[in-house]
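A protein record in our archive is deliberately plain, so that people and models can read it alike. The record that follows is passed on verbatim for readers who wish to inspect the format.
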Amino acid sequence: MIAIVGVLPDEIKPIVDSLAPRLQISQLLKRPVFRGLIGSNEVLIISGCVGKVETASVVQAVIDGFKPDCLLLIGAAGALRQDVPLGTLVAGTAYVEYDFSPRINVDSLISPRQEVFAPLLESSEVNCGIITSGDSFVSSESLAKKIHEATGAICVDMDSAAAAKVCVENEKPFLSVKVIVDFAGSKAIEQYIENHARFGPKAAYFVVEILRNVVLV
């Protein structure tokens, strides 16, 4: 079974709508949980995780409650490079918390197992690379530049690194697929509000298309 965690409900709606049959089987942490098939893939879907703490709690609860084979996170992100256009899909190959100062001899780069996600990572529709996460919007160009130089990340969000860390600790394959809706900097919040409705579900449509044609687990 593939668990899919969406940051916001509208970002996973295309996946929920594609389930056949679509069954709301339960609630988890007061969030609705849906289950069904897409192609030959059994899929479990939940949403509602803004920030690293909430994301970690939801992902751990999903793993404890449903024992999925692997976990996908989908949502929106801000570009850290100007050559990454709005609407670009980014698949994370590794993850890092930009606002965490690592202890001595601790590798800050989080690298989950990803073999089962090869069909997504090899798609021409995605840019693959590092995704970095922190608990606030990056609202200045100088901070965005600093984060990019320190991490080498394509984009920044508030959740991927936390989900990746939980999956590594639980030995679960993990992938985050994000769509760019703003450029990290002084206009990030304004751009997010302007572009999220247009681009927010794009990662979900991409995942649905893959699942209809490929069996992941």
Q: What stands out?
A: The chain has a mean pLDDT of 95. The longest helix spans residues 52-66.
